């Protein structure tokens, strides 16, 4: 039997190869990021040593996230089963309707630290909210079109069933699974609708046309992880890419927090509409783009509340003639920027490891506060990487790829329960996962110090 981590690794590689063929600029982007990362590691041996010690260096070259947009509850439920074969489970709920984007989303990803270390491949997965189409006729038409499509191959459905029954896949079946699963994410230039239908859906919201008018949920970007997003952003033009003006997320920091992202504009791709009795009409569609990201430490609910407050302040407060980047820098001066402060004020999650042998200096007990052990040099604390997404950033990424503007005004709210019903499962709480990693590392230390480690 081939393990989930290995199937995920094979799938992520196959997806990356396919996307490089489909969108050559993605290939250029991965080269740019590899060059920037090599330079950062060369210039910062301490960072390199730390990434190596925590097993993060090995995953850096393969680390990617992608995104898809689904049309129906049934598609989402089957997608959950498909990702489960690769050890990817839904984490987090993101409501984007508040930002004028008619979707809500989750991220499918591995959750335990061994799996994350092997390959943290994640897919931001959105479900279209048809209830947000105001026109009854148009909504019914979109529903009818979506109900008629089959986005999964019979082959992949059979293999998912086999995996669920037998608890695994043999080598040959795993390769077949990867090949068949990939078909769902492939780009098809033939639309499933006429030019007139496309235009009507497009006028309701560009995103609705992107989800409804095609055979499947084409992968719309694949994002490599950079160690210096400012450097990568500055070099994008020399690779022929027009980057988004602002980097989403927090400003540059000594101790990076959460997630910073930037993207280049979506490509205009030729498509072929369904003809009515005659050959189809040509058109074009923009959906697929490139993105890079830099990841920092995961924040506790307290840290996250502070982040949200300061981000809001930077966006809404103060004179608008001050550039956004500067307002952001200014607002975030209130966010502590040393690891000691992030730990001391319980703003971020850390993983704790014994610095050396499991011995304590005189006067210490195995139950001593972990912070005392860090100060005494018995224990080292390492930031836990944020593995998830940010709704405000995601909305910015969506918007920049909907040809600017693009935000409708929806008088609705989050519908987490509706999303989970469609999914057929609850989404995991990301903070509980990070807290679990942190607490387990502390328990392991105390066990080792008591000599009870197995
Ligand atoms: C997803 C946009 C969100 C991110 O990194 O925040 C995203 C989409 O455009 O489908 O990928
Ligand atoms: Ni993304």
Automatic annotation (TrEMBL):
Q: Which GO terms describe its molecular function?
A: dioxygenase activity
Cofactor(s), by name: Fe(2+)
Top-level class of the enzyme under EC nomenclature: oxidoreductase
Q: Which family does it belong to?
A: Belongs to the 2-oxoadipate dioxygenase/decarboxylase family.
List the protein's name.
2-oxoadipate dioxygenase/decarboxylase
Q: Does the keyword RNA-binding apply?
A: no
Keyword Oxidoreductase in the entry? The reply is: yes
Q: Which UniProt keywords apply?
A: Dioxygenase, Iron, Oxidoreductase
What top-level branch of life does the organism fall under? Answer: Bacteria
Q: What is its EC number?
A: 1.13.11.93
Q: Which InterPro entries match?
A: HGLS (IPR009770), YdcJ_bac-like (IPR047869)
Q: Which Gene3D superfamilies match?
A: Uncharacterised protein PF07063, DUF1338
């Amino acid at each position: 039997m081939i393990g989930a981590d290995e199937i995920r690794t094979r799938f992520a590689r196959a997806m990356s190869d396919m996307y490089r063929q489909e969108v050559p600029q993605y290939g250029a982007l991965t080269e740019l990021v590899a060059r920037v990362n090599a330079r950062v590691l060369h210039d910062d041996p301490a960072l390199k040593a730390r990434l190596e010690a925590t097993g993060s260096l090995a995953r850096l070259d393969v680390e990617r996230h992608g995104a898809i947009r689904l049309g129906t509850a049934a598609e989402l439920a089957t997608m959950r089963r498909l990702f489960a074969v690769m050890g990817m489970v839904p984490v987090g709920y993101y409501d984007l309707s508040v930002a004028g984007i008619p979707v809500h989303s989750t991220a499918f990803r591995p959750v335990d630290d061994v799996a994350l270390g092997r390959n943290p491949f994640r897919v931001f997965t959105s479900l279209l909210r048809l209830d947000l189409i105001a026109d009854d006729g148009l909504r019914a038409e979109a529903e009818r079109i979506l109900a008629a499509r089959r986005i999964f191959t019979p082959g992949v459905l059979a293999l998912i069933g086999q995996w669920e029954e037998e608890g695994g896949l043999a080598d040959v079946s795993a390769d077949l699974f990867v090949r068949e699963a990939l078909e769902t994410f492939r780009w098809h230039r033939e639309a499933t609708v006429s030019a007139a239908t496309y235009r009507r859906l497009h006028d309701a919201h560009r995103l609705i046309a992107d989800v409804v008018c095609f055979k499947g949920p084409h992968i719309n970007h694949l994002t490599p992880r950079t160690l210096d997003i400012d450097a990568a952003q500055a070099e994008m033009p020399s690779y022929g890419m027009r980057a988004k003006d602002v980097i989403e997320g927090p400003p540059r920091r000594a101790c990076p927090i959460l997630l910073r992202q930037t993207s280049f504009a979506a490509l205009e791709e030729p498509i072929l509409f369904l003809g009515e009795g005659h050959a189809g009409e040509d058109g074009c569609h923009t959906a697929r783009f490139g993105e890079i990201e830099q990841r920092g430490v995961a924040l506790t609910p307290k840290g996250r509340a502070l982040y949200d407050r300061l981000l809001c302040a930077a966006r809404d407060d103060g004179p608008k003639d001050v550039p956004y980047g500067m307002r952001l820098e200014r607002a975030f001066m209130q966010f502590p920027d040393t690891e000691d402060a992030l730990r001391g004020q319980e703003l971020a999650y850390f993983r704790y490891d014994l610095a050396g042998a499991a011995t304590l200096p005189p006067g210490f007990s195995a139950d001593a506060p972990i912070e005392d052990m860090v100060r005494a040099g018995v224990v080292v604390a390492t930031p836990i990487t944020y593995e998830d997404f940010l709704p405000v950033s995601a909305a910015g990424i969506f918007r920049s790829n909907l040809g600017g503007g693009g935000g409708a005004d929806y008088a609705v709210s989050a519908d987490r329960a509706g999303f989970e019903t469609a999914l057929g499962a609850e989404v995991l709480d990301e903070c509980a996962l990070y807290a679990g990693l942190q607490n387990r590392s502390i328990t392991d230390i105390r066990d080792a110090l008591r000599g009870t480690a197995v």
